[in-house]
Amino acid sequence: MSFQDRTQHQIGQIDKEVYIDEEMIQLSKYPMLNNFEKQTSVPKVYAFLGLVGIYFFLVFFNIAGEFLVNFAGFLVPGYYSLEALFSASKVDDTQWLTYWVVYAFLSVFESAVNAVYWFPFYYTFKFVLVLWMALPQTGGAQIVFRSFIQPVFSRFFSQSGSTAANLRSQADQATKPHAM
């Protein structure tokens, strides 16, 4: 099989199935892409890959890089966070809460350090990092949390007697009238 045949096969696979967050997305189910394909005679796969390429190009050359990276870091995780809140499972709640804690920590760290001026192609690196953290298949947010944030901040949150339930029971005990 030649390189061109393999490429055409892979492009055909993209049209059939694109996986985003373990969910198969078929490009054919989007009317906008189907209408675009009918009107322009350009396959919807090429339009999809072109949009992804333009998005990455803009991030790479920092043409609205900060906005595009923050958009990618907020839109899809925000959607899945809302979906997790409306589901009965608590596993996805923990996953997305961890993502938002890490994302917030990195945003505050980024503004404090002002890394944009010191690091060339910063937004390209941040874009890849945000995608890695947001994808459940990679578990990136959990890795960053367990490797950096948890060791630093666990001493402030894991002390016995500091939980909300324990504090509430201590307050209840203190406010009960003492029997004499």
UniProtKB/TrEMBL annotation:
Keyword Metal-binding found: no
Location within or outside the cell: Membrane
InterPro entries: TB2_DP1_HVA22
Membrane-spanning residues: 45-65, 100-119, 125-145
Pfam families on file: TB2_DP1_HVA22
Topology term for the membrane: Multi-pass membrane protein
One GO cellular component term noted in the UniProt record for this chain: membrane
Keywords: Membrane, Transmembrane, Transmembrane helix
Family: Belongs to the DP1 family.
Name this polypeptide is given: Protein YOP1
Source species: Alectoria fallacina
